[in-house]
């Protein structure tokens, strides 16, 4: 047996699975866990005649692991060790270890919940926390608890919180392999900005090849950067013994093998890879890493129902794994293209996919499993409620869920297809319409990378041009197609055809492409905005924009199949044209007719329309002379909720009523005062306003509504009398005048009054039977602010005499007595006071 670090803990793993049905193995990259552990466990007594199934997060890793294990046994792949991945399977009746990608385990579980052919399920590289791995583990744990108490589960990971996973698995024992690697020196550099990744990396690789020996593994965010760096390196003068190899999931098998295999004698390799090379894969001869520090990850926005790819900083765990690839065989070096001080700002771990992904597939799988509540299963991280709700809404619109939240027969049929539920729905419907092969081609195109080769000219967004290229009709359009990818598209389409049991090939009606795509994306049907080019409103309510010069910019309807960006308007990368007739025929059950009213604030009238609506899109509108009253009321309420109560132009008295009630809630001795703040009033318009809108047919009627009367009636007679008594509108001062009390601050009611009107009053004015003093804003005869006080008696004694001196000079015609407590209150000049006597 090859001397690998994992060998020292093999007895512990065997013992743990002899005595328990679950275990957790922590082992760093290069320890040998992926290939050594499954082979070692084949001989376990508890396995009997059953098989081991091991999940890998990526197709490339699954195939490579199976090939390596078969080689260790001196066999060909498909004998004792085989693999099953998308579009490829190599297993036989003799196979004891099946290496599969994660979605395949879910398919097996749905058809055989007991996993009757298997004795052990291994989750490899679980630290990547893919959506399918979390789902697979949750289903396996339930199967183990309810159906197969002898089923073993082993979770293996390079970097993982073992205690957390062990807890989810019922306290499973944790085995740790320390691993063995050679030291790796980290060399930091200046920060590489996203827009400069390709240029900076190409320059760094050229520099490294001159200063370092051995092969180089370069980590880049995605395929686009890999191709750009590859082209840039080809334009440079590299040593003659250096070959540059790309490595990513969709690469042809021969090119993948070339990237990971040993170089010829005297040759060096530069492998340009995505995050696929962080774990599982062993790339021979690498002792130098160039890490750009970025990765590409999907982010789902529940509010829009859209997923976008974002270029993000790697986590510390990923950076360490990348660096560790240089120390497999000898001391290595890792060039990190960011300053060392930035390490502290990196996240510790990548976020689990279940927290940020589109959950449509997961929800459909669980409904098919018989689970409507995710909390019934065991998760390391519970699926977010907002994403779950969004997925349920989408699945309902696709006909996969009924009104009771249960999976429909159509939903079950969708769940049997190995594609996203959107595409599964489209495939089934296309078959029913007699265009199954077109549906298969379209699904393959939507599920794969663009078949158009990038060029200096901006690629058109029309997906039909891609379809024409796939079926051989696009040669005269001046577009450059990736022939290898077109072959891949056709292979995938053939697999879909087998899944839905239709004939492969034949003529297709490309004019139906947009209609069928709209079945997959009913929430992304776009309607061209009036008097615009390239600006669309989506059926979900969001906006969408395309280049005004694009050939689809003036189409009345599009279905947006590939979008990106955030905010109120998304950017469209691929789309298909469709007609209003397509929308009406394929989405008839979601088209509703309704009476609608629009307020013309300039003319002060309500304009009525009978509209046909598909989701948020208005397909047609016809004016109505006499709008329906219910529609008028609905529109009034909508406008008020959007614009606030100010739209009703409430009187000062009505505003003060709300403020008085707020003060009563603060100080009142009765605790059931209503909450008259604007938020509550807007939320409860149906309660207090709607009953008074039955006869409102014009702006004049609306503005004539007396909000004070409406809100007073909501209080009731007893409450209103109590409010008037304890929290009055006005306070009567010694002159007999009654200034209004300001309740703007409910905890601090204010009385603004001219100072002279309080002569002879020794106590501070108050409400609630003297329990709440009013804050006095004392004013001059010209109603200018003089003093603010809560203590009138203290003011007369201490401050008044200073104020009097100033006021006598400014207002000599007014009365300024030496003793205000015995003086006559007045609001007049001395001359008018004499006349009054």
Automatic annotation (TrEMBL):
PROSITE patterns, per the entry: HELICASE_ATP_BIND_1, HELICASE_CTER
MF (Gene Ontology): hydrolase activity; RNA helicase activity
Gene: hrpB
Top-level EC class: hydrolase
Highest taxon in the source lineage: Bacteria
UniProt organism field: Kiloniella antarctica
Pfam families: DEAD (PF00270), Helicase_C (PF00271), HrpB_C (PF08482), WHD_HA2 (PF04408)
CDD domains recorded: DEXHc_HrpB (cd17990), SF2_C_RHA (cd18791)
UniProt xrefs under InterPro entries: DEAD/DEAH_box_helicase_dom, HA2_WH, Helicase-assoc_dom, Helicase_ATP-bd, Helicase_C-like, HrpB, HrpB_DEXH, P-loop_NTPase
Record flagged with keyword ATP-binding: yes
Protein name: ATP-dependent helicase HrpB
Enzyme Commission no: 3.6.4.13
SMART domains listed in its UniProt record: DEXDc, HA2, HELICc
Lineage: Bacteria, Pseudomonadati, Pseudomonadota, Alphaproteobacteria, Rhodospirillales
Helicase C-terminal domain mapped to chain residues: 200-370
Keywords: ATP-binding, Helicase, Hydrolase, Nucleotide-binding
Keyword Hydrolase: yes
Helicase ATP-binding domain sequence ranges: 14-178
